[in-house]
Amino acid sequence: MQLIIAAVGHRMPAWIESGFAEYAKRMPPDCRILLKEIKPVERSGGRTAESVMAAERGKIEAAIPKGSRIVALDERGRDLTTMQLSQLLGQWRQDGRDVTFLIGGADGLDAGLKASADMLVRVSSLTLPHGMVRVLLAEQLYRAWSITQNHPYHRV
Ligand SMILES: C[S@@+](CC[C@H](N)C(=O)[O-])C[C@H]1O[C@@H](n2cnc3c(N)ncnc32)[C@H](O)[C@@H]1O
């Protein structure tokens, strides 16, 4: 199983890239985190946020592997505890399907894309910058994996 993060945004600041890489490199080969960056659509020429999100939706969908489970990240999504995430990760690893996490750009994710996802999840009730969300998500996936392995990274 692979954990794919399809994230709108590229050319991230070095601290985002190194923060993400720090956690991604800790994952084992059978549960890798793979980042697919999506170039944001420019909001120029009077383009509305809706049309930008719709255009980005097409690019995001093209980055989702066939048959993957889809988890959309949104501040209005469901709260998960780290323990719940680790239980989900354990279930996902049993069926072996890839899981793709979607992170939107400055305007967010297209409403239809969110509605079609298997789950809508938040990492906080605050609105966070998209780069920070990928770092937080990578850390939580590593933490969730470490719990499934009884690894001492997570202390109760
Ligand atoms: C700057 S936010 C977009 C905010 C946008 N105005 C909205 O209403 O969704 C960019 C992306 O980061 C992710 N994001 C931001 N805050 C989040 C949170 N608290 N939980 C989960 N994802 C979040 C979402 O995927 C969002 O589409």
TrEMBL record:
<dbReference type="Pfam" id="PF02590">
    <property type="entry name" value="SPOUT_MTase"/>
</dbReference>
<comment type="similarity">
    <text>Belongs to the RNA methyltransferase RlmH family.</text>
</comment>
<dbReference type="InterPro" id="IPR003742">
    <property type="entry name" value="RlmH-like"/>
</dbReference>
<dbReference type="InterPro" id="IPR029026">
    <property type="entry name" value="tRNA_m1G_MTases_N"/>
</dbReference>
<keyword id="KW-0808">Transferase</keyword>
<keyword id="KW-0963">Cytoplasm</keyword>
<protein>
    <recommendedName>
        <fullName>Ribosomal RNA large subunit methyltransferase H</fullName>
        <ecNumber>2.1.1.177</ecNumber>
    </recommendedName>
</protein>
<keyword id="KW-0698">rRNA processing</keyword>
<feature type="binding site">
    <location>
        <begin position="123"/>
        <end position="128"/>
    </location>
    <ligand>
        <name>S-adenosyl-L-methionine</name>
    </ligand>
</feature>
<feature type="binding site">
    <location>
        <position position="104"/>
    </location>
    <ligand>
        <name>S-adenosyl-L-methionine</name>
    </ligand>
</feature>
<comment type="subunit">
    <text>Homodimer.</text>
</comment>
<keyword id="KW-0949">S-adenosyl-L-methionine</keyword>
<dbReference type="GO" id="GO:0005737">
    <property type="term" value="C:cytoplasm"/>
</dbReference>
<dbReference type="InterPro" id="IPR029028">
    <property type="entry name" value="Alpha/beta_knot_MTases"/>
</dbReference>
<comment type="function">
    <text>Specifically methylates the pseudouridine at position 1915 (m3Psi1915) in 23S rRNA.</text>
</comment>
<keyword id="KW-0489">Methyltransferase</keyword>
<dbReference type="GO" id="GO:0070038">
    <property type="term" value="F:rRNA (pseudouridine-N3-)-methyltransferase activity"/>
</dbReference>
<feature type="binding site">
    <location>
        <position position="73"/>
    </location>
    <ligand>
        <name>S-adenosyl-L-methionine</name>
    </ligand>
</feature>
